């Protein structure tokens, strides 16, 4: 083997020799690569024919781009959370978009009911008297609602900066608290909810920057309106806080700031953490803070419609069981009613339809019967030695003089004597005695 190395690539080019990149032609020759019919190379989209796959076109037949159903609620750029009064919602993980869609549709129906004057195109629909025209007007309204250029005058979606949390701005004259309370009352009355992905739904009456001074100014306004009553009576209240992705304010600092504003009202309001009439809720997120005064905070399960519907369904089930028991008792005579109540009390019925210790007592009776039945059958059976139905004592009394009983149970009497014959115990009645 020679120690001399061949000429370099540049020297070979200068001398007119072959290039070092032997397969350069196959790398750069043509654009249709990957097919068996031409070009070498491995292309993804050209399998077997040499022609490229056409680009995906999501546009409908009319050539216009697809419309987002929630596009009318989105602006560019999206507003941040807690920058305006609205509704703060906690959702199931990775279901924020679904929660937005179902809640927006639900809020639109509630707003049509509570604020009919804000319905877009409502006057045109009322003027039409024919059903066909009503259908056309409704169809026109639906098409306008999907138009990206006409934005909603009721609700506005905010950016997604937190996991499992969405925020919807509520534009005036709509009230966030009135809308949310209507949702809770419907869940309680019907014992069901139409919201599958939403958990807690908290109305926010006012927002400000997360500083003690600005929080104090906001609390002075929110507390004054929230604690207003017809007779200026004192109210029992509590303060609750939620902090997300922020360390601007401490929890006790926020509580003391708001409580100071409640004290300045001079109405004799007192703190009651167990049974408050009103709850002041503070939502802190990054550099913003939201505040609202809520009623029936514990009754509405911290404003969770799913929990409200579940509790209402259980209450209806218990009430139906109680009504059934009372109707059965009322159909009986007074003496039978007293007897049935006494039996229910002995059996452990508490009056709510739920038996107390009934299953335990039934189990004990079943176990006892398993042990008592064989013994009773043994006593009442007819053995080979002459024991008759009625037990051992009856057998001994009915036995004749001189009769032998083999392996008799029980104690020996005065009229009997025992003896062992072939390893067996025999009892013989004495003659003449």
From TrEMBL:
The keyword Zinc-finger does not apply. Residues 369-382 have a biased composition (Polar residues). Residues 1-77, 313-415 are annotated as: Disordered. It comes from Kwoniella dejecticola CBS 10117. PROSITE patterns: THUMP (PS51165). The keyword Lipoprotein does not apply. Residues 32-42 have a biased composition (Gly residues). This is THUMP domain-containing protein. Residues 184-295 form the THUMP domain. GO terms for molecular function: RNA binding. Transmembrane segments: none annotated.
């Amino acid at each position: 083997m020679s120690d001399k190395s061949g000429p370099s690539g540049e020297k070979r080019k200068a001398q007119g020799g072959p290039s070092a990149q032997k397969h350069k032609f196959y790398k750069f020759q043509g654009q249709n690569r990957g097919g068996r019919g031409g070009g070498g190379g491995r292309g993804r989209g050209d399998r077997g024919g040499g022609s490229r796959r056409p680009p995906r076109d999501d546009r409908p037949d009319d050539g216009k781009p697809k419309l987002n159903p929630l596009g009318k609620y989105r602006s560019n750029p999206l507003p941040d959370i807690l920058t305006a009064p609205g509704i703060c919602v906690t959702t199931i993980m990775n279901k924020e978009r679904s929660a937005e869609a179902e809640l927006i549709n639900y809020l639109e129906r509630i707003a049509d009911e509570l604020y009919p004057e804000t319905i877009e195109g409502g006057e045109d629909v009322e003027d039409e008297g024919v059903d066909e025209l009503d259908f056309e007007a409704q169809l026109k309204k639906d098409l306008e609602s999907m138009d990206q250029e006409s934005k909603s005058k009721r609700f506005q979606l905010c950016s997604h900066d937190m996991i499992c949390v969405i925020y919807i701005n509520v534009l005036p004259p709509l009230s966030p608290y009135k809308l949310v309370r209507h949702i809770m009352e419907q869940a309680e009355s019907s014992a069901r909810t139409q919201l599958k992905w939403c958990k807690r739904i908290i109305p926010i009456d006012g927002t400000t920057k997360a500083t003690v001074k600005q929080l104090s100014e906001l609390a002075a306004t929110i507390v004054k309106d929230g604690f207003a009553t017809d007779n200026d009576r004192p109210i029992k209240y509590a303060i609750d806080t939620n902090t997300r992705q922020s360390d601007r304010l401490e929890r006790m600092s926020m509580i003391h700031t708001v409580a100071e504003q409640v004290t300045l009202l001079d109405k004799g309001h007192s703190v009651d953490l167990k049974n408050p009439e009103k709850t002041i809720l503070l939502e802190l997120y990054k550099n913003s803070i939201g505040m609202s005064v809520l009623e029936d905070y514990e009754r509405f399960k911290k404003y969770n419609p799913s929990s409200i519907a579940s509790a209402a369904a259980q209450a209806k089930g218990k009430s139906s069981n109680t009504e059934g028991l009372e109707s059965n008792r009322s159909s009986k005579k007074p003496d039978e009613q007293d007897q049935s109540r006494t039996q229910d009390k002995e059996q452990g019925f508490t009056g709510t339809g739920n038996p107390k210790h009934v299953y335990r007592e039934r189990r004990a009776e079943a176990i006892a019967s398993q042990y008592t039945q064989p013994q009773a059958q043994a006593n009442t059976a007819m053995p080979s030695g002459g024991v008759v139905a009625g037990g051992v004592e009856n057998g001994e009394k009915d036995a004749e003089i001189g009769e032998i009983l083999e392996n008799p149970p029980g104690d020996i009497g005065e009229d009997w004597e025992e003896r062992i014959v072939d390893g067996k115990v025999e009892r013989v009645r004495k003659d003449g005695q």
